């Protein structure tokens, strides 16, 4: 939990790391129709 106790702490490395990994997998597997969503998530 965060010190406010409202939400649990982020359980993975970081949101930025997750987005970078998502980008890597999207490009690797040619699933480029999701690139727009990924760009929006990074804003």
Structural account:
The chain is mainly α. The protein has one domain. The chain has 2 helices and no strands. The chain has helices at 15-28, 35-41. The two termini are 25 Å apart.
Which characteristics define this entry?
single chain, 43 residues, mainly alpha, 2 helices, 49% helix
User: Which geometry do the CA atoms define?
Assistant: elongated
Order of helices and strands: HH
Q: Rg from C-alpha positions?
A: 14 Å
Broad structural category: mainly alpha
The average pLDDT score comes to 83
Count of distinct structural domains: 1
Number of helices: 2
Uncertain runs: none
What proportion strand? under 5%
Distance between the termini: 25 Å
Main sheet overview: none
**How many strands?**
0
Binned, the helix content reads 40-55%
What order do the helices and strands come in, and which of them pair?
Blueprint (H helix, E strand, L loop, with lengths): L14 H14 L6 H7 L2
Tell me briefly what this model is:
The protein has 43 residues and is mainly α. It has helices at residues 15-28, 35-41. The chain contains two helices and no strands.
